[in-house]
Amino acid sequence: MKDQLINKGKALLDEQLSAYGLGGLFGGGEGNSGGAGSSAGSATPASDGMNRYQLGIDGVGARLSILRIEGHEQLSEPWRFVVQFTAPHGLSMSQVLSKNVAIALAPGGVSDLMGAASGLSSELMSAFNAFGGMFGDKIGQAFNAPIGGFSIKRITQMASQGASIAGRVSSVAGKMGGMASGLGSAAGAVGGIAGKASGLLGSVGGALGKAGSGLSSLTSAVSGAAGALGMNGGGAFGETRALYGIVTSFSQLSTSGDEARYEVTVSPRLQLLDNTRGNAIYQNQTVPQVVEEVLRKHELTGVDFRFELAETYPVKEYLTQWEESDLTFIRRLLADSGIWFRFESHAEHGCDVVVFGDSVQQYQDGPQASYRQPTGNNDGGLEAVWDMSVARKTVPQNVITQDYNYRAAQSGMKSDVNEQKKDATTRGQYYLYAEHYRDRGEVVQSGNEQDDLLGQFGNLLDGLGDIPGISQLSGVANSVSGAIGNVKGAIDGAAGSVTSAVGSTIGGITGGASGVGSSPVDFAGGGGSGASIGDMAGSVANSVGSAVSSTASSIGSAVSGAASSIGGAVSGAAQGIAGQAQDLMGQGTDLLNKFGFGDGEGGENGEGGEESQEPEGVGQGAWYGKLRHQRLMTEQITISGKTTLAHLAPGQILTVNGSPIAEAGGGILIVSVESIGDRSQAYQLTFTGIPYDALRPYRPALLAWPSIGGTLPARVTSPDNDQYGYMDSHGRYRVKMDFDLNDSWRKGEESLWMRRASVYAGETYGLHFPLIDGTEVAIAFTGGNPDRPYISHAMHDSRHPELVTAANHKRNVIRTPANNKLRMDDERGKEHIKVATEYGKTQLNMGHLVDAERKQRGEGFELRTDEWGAIRAGKGIFISADGQEKASGLSLEMSAALNQLTQAKMDMLSLTDAANKAKALVADIESQQSLLEQRLNDLSAKVILASAPQGIGLTSGEHTQIASAQNMTLTAGNQVDIGAIKNVTISAGGGVGLYALDAGMKLYASNSDIDIQAHQGQVSSWSTKDTFIGSGKRMVLSAQDELILVCGGGYIKIAGGKVEIGAPGELLIKTAGVTKQGPSSQEAAMKSFEPNTFKERFVITNQSTGETLPNQKYRVTTSSGNVIEGVTGEDGLTELMEFSSIERIKIELL
After folding, report:
1. Which stretches are tagged as biased composition: Acidic residues (predicted)?
2. CA Rg, the chain, in Å?
3. N or C: which end of the chain has fewer CB within 10 A?
4. Calpha distance 294→302 (Å, rounded)
5. For residue 182, with 0-12 CB atoms within 10 Å meaning exposed, 13-18 middle and 19 or more buried, which class applies?
6. 871 and 906 assigned to the same domain
7. Residues 85/96, Cβ–Cβ less than 8 Å
8. Is the link from the previous residue into 78 a cis peptide, with omega within 30 of 0?
């Protein structure tokens, strides 16, 4: 009956307050019930009349009576409530499991009218807080715009963190004009608030009077109390905490004759993400973007989650979900970036909401309670905190992070961070390797350094007192605080009166009920009892009405006075601020720069010329070091306690008045809550938290990072099924991971660019066979981190069969897609190597040569091509057929060749001596010796030496030319044969000498003439023995001037048409007769020869382009020392040059 009376009183008061737009302060009866069901369908908690804990399941209309409830809540984890309840038989799994649920946790032991008074006090406080917030916002806009969340209450938080500062002080001047009018409007609004408050308080009296009438009517309506108060008021929560979730487990514990006992586990919808396990890849997204994508994949929409982040997070090139649930995946990513999350209940939509935060600005203002150890079994209806304890431990002094970025291999990546340099209790060093960041970053200011800046900021604010109006604002703030205190005091006094009156009334009602009987019929039937209830209810209403009405007038006066003072002060302050804000702009700008919010240069460019998109500092090594140290500092101090604050939840700041723990003085950030309640004991919570400190933000515990110990299969991809390797400027590839089920990637963009491991690598050297589209590769991971993949090696598969199998297991093969190959066969006794390319079928075959069917086709080596071939060696070439067993000896072992050349030189020297004695033209032995000793020996010069012990053959199908710029020596130990089917010519610019030592010399012409000529000299023929000149027909001896035959002193001389015969002895003529006739003569044909001169012109061209060079000066130097200079014509030709003999010339361009 006590709870029913409270609910009825709340409903009546709420009805009156609704007329002033303040309805719903106390639950709103049916209206609140309807709000709870908007998300969960019909999952509205159904009251069982006396139970503080209410449960509603979507689609279940039966009354559910909670026996026991146990809750587990923690920051960055989905909460879990285990509820045991009774219900009629027949609840099936399909009715309950995975259904939407609403749970109501109502406070106990508080009278309805005291709650009404407290609610009114809270509403007035909210109004003044709203003004205070507006007032604070204006100051914030004036000096630090746009600094979100700047209020008088938390100026120190704003100054220290600075994370919510979105702009710069330089915008102050532009906003000063609007500030005066804005503050003027604020003053007017305060006046309106005061007026409305006065009217509201007046109406409260009427409402309480109406409540008294309603209570009086209980006498006649007691028989219907169960229906009118209990059942119909089930949705009125008052300070009730509403939780919306989904059933994740359902058990039937027992069954009796008329009902069954069940147990359900209720969690937020986020918990369902734990049922989805998978592997996925995310590219070029921030952590919040990845989290949002996962949430939307599970059909959570914008109303179901909210990001309230102070940081702007960097784009992650590659993130992998590996063998983990979706819930674990997003929790891991969030914790890694220092982002935590908490839950709210959305009354309008009736759903749970997950809120993500990363700084103190996202903490919730939590409840306040006094520290009081409960006595006995009654807490008097007052919520309290007790059994508080604190645990303190030493944490590392600093965090060192180190990583390696191959894209900036020479860059230092180490950072050293100490967030609390003034903390003398920290000890040790916490070293973290491979946190996975691209740049070292700069170490940001620690909390202690921010303390120093905070002092400077405070000094700046203190300096504002010199501005006209600022001191007035300070006084106004004090006036407002005093006025609010007076209002609250008056209301508390009224509430005390109301509490006393209601307490006595409830006591009387309880006593009356006990005296009449326990059943509603007995209670209603006793007329005396009914009259007593009415009298007491009327007394309550009168007492409350008097207390509140007497206070309303003083409250209104106090508020109106405060509003008037504020209006005048604010107006003056605005004018003063506008006049002097410009002078403070420079100071504010400097402080903002020290806080790290000045205009800075962007991040460094990434490797490969791609500009980094990461915000400065965030995502870098120092940033990770800061997060990790903040996490360690989170664990330094842990506060625990117990409370009856039913609506206490993780993420709230709990204020405990009179706490015995010093660290709790500034508030406690609630990290976890364990709660339990049943019908035999009050709802009790055990909480853990950390001291609230604006400079020591909470960071969630890191989750274990998945590790991949081996390799995973993937295939190389390219945008257009490239025939050749598709890679970037650093030789990296993109692959499609086999585990990735996402088919929406654009081809060739399924992964980040991956490095390929190599057996050999270095600066400008290495080993790289390009991987073609579709090639299977094995992906390994640096340190096992799924976010750091690289190509370990390539694999053969059914689409790309192995080159070496059982069929050719003796071979070692390297073959490219274009059939360039290196084949090495290790079959003993048949070893061979083949280096080949398809172009021109160019091959080098060595060893046991085989054909395509592996039939032997030769031994040794074969160098062949269908195209052109060239053998080039800049220092010399030695070609030898001389044996060198088992590849022993030096590569230039040429003693056999040199011996042969030396023997040839000796032979030539002997012949030269004989020729010299015969006065014949001799060979140039010195040149041969120089060639042999100074050039050919050990290839001391750029020469070619070919040697074969048994012969060298040179043949050509058409032409063969052997040329030498200096000397050419042809020596044979036996015989030299020169033959030609047609002509043999021997020409020399100097002389030609033929000398035969022993076998003589023969000159034959079988079918034509022999013609011997000396164009400018003599022809001499000599023999120490007989000389025979004969002719088968005629012989003609002719001379142009004179013909002489001489022998033994006698002669015949023919000259000038005369014949002279002379002899020292007799002239014997043997003849049959002598005939003398008249004179006669006969002419012989004489030959004449042109002088040996040569005339030439040369074309001067550019060797690179082949173009002629007109008007080019030149100089020609002949081997005889003559110099000719000139200029080429328009056609690039030199002047005509004449030479008397064959000479070598050198042409120089001037």
Report:
1. 601-614
2. 57
3. C
4. 13
5. middle
6. no
7. no
8. no
**Total Cβ atoms within 10 A of residue 363:** 21
78 vs 72, 351, 649, CA distance in Å? 9, 14, 12
**Residue corresponding to tokens 């586990």:** 265
Distances (CA, A) of 7 to 275, 456, 787: 41, 53, 57
Residue 162 to residues 175, 293, 437, 625, 795, Cα–Cα distance (Å): 20, 29, 24, 19, 54
**Cα–Cα dist 670/692, whole Å:** 9
> What would the two tokens of residue 457 be?
């900021």
Span 587-640, pLDDT tens digits: 554 544 444 444 433 333 333 333 334 444 677 888 999 999 999 999 999 999
Asked whether residue 573 falls in the same domain as residue 482, the answer is yes
Under 8 Å between Cβ of 23 and 249 = no
- The H-or-E segment that residue 460 falls in is helix 447-463
Domain shared by 786 and 729, yes or no:
yes
Claim to verify: residue 860 and residue 920 sit in the same structural domain: no
> Three-state secondary structure along 319-330?
EEEEEEEHHHHH
Which of 11, 229, 15, 239 is CA-nearest to residue 109?
239
Q: What average pLDDT does the segment 151-169 reach?
A: 39
858 and 929, same domain (yes or no): no
Q: Is residue 626 part of a domain?
A: no
Average pLDDT over residues 154-162: 41
Same domain, 747 and 856: yes
- The Cα 721–Cα 775 span in angstroms is 11
List b or e across 1102-1137, with b for residues whose CB sees 16 or more CB atoms inside 10 angstroms: eeeeeebeeebebebbeeeeeeeeeebeeebebeeb
Phi–psi pair at 678, nearest 5 degrees: -155, -170
Residues in the chain: 1150
* Residue partners of 317: CB distance under 8 A and separation at least 6: 283, 284, 752
Exposure b/e, 264-277, CB count within 10 A at least 16 = b: bbbbbbbbbbbeee
What tokens does 970 get? 């042809």
Domain boundary among 823, 845, 875: 875
**Residue, of 138 and 800, whose pLDDT is higher:** 800
Identify the DSSP state of 510. H
CA-wise closest residue to 385 among 111, 106, 658: 658
Give percent of the chain with pLDDT exceeding 90: 40
Of 659, 113, 759, 19, the residue nearest 368 (C-alpha):
659
Average pLDDT, the chain: 75
Find residue 60's DSSP bridge partners.
none
Number of domains in the chain: 4
CA distance 295 to 302: 10
Instruction: Answer yes or no: is 939 within a domain.
Output: yes
Strands 944-947 and 877-880: parallel
* 353 inside domain: no
The two tokens of residue 503 are: 């307490």
Domain span holding position 937: 876-883+893-947
**Domain check: are 910 and 859 in the same one?**
no
Nearest to 8 by CA among 643, 537, 542: 537
Cα 180 from Cα 174, distance rounded (Å) = 12
Please answer whether residues 369 and 384 qualify as being in contact, where contact means their C-beta atoms are separated by less than 8 angstroms. yes
Tokens linked to 540: 């309550």
What pLDDT shows up at residue 364? 94
Residue 564 CB neighbour total at 10 angstroms = 15
Dihedral pair phi/psi, residue 935, rounded to 5°: -125, -55
pLDDT, one tens digit per residue, over 761-818 is 998 899 999 999 999 999 999 999 999 999 999 999 999 999 999 999 999 999 999 9
* Contact (Cβ atoms closer than 8 angstroms) between residue 75 and residue 342: yes
Q: How many CA atoms lie within 13 A of 639 on its CB side?
A: 25
Phi, psi of 515 (to 5 degrees): -70, -35
Residue 702 is classified by DSSP as P
CB 793 within 8 A of CB 779: no
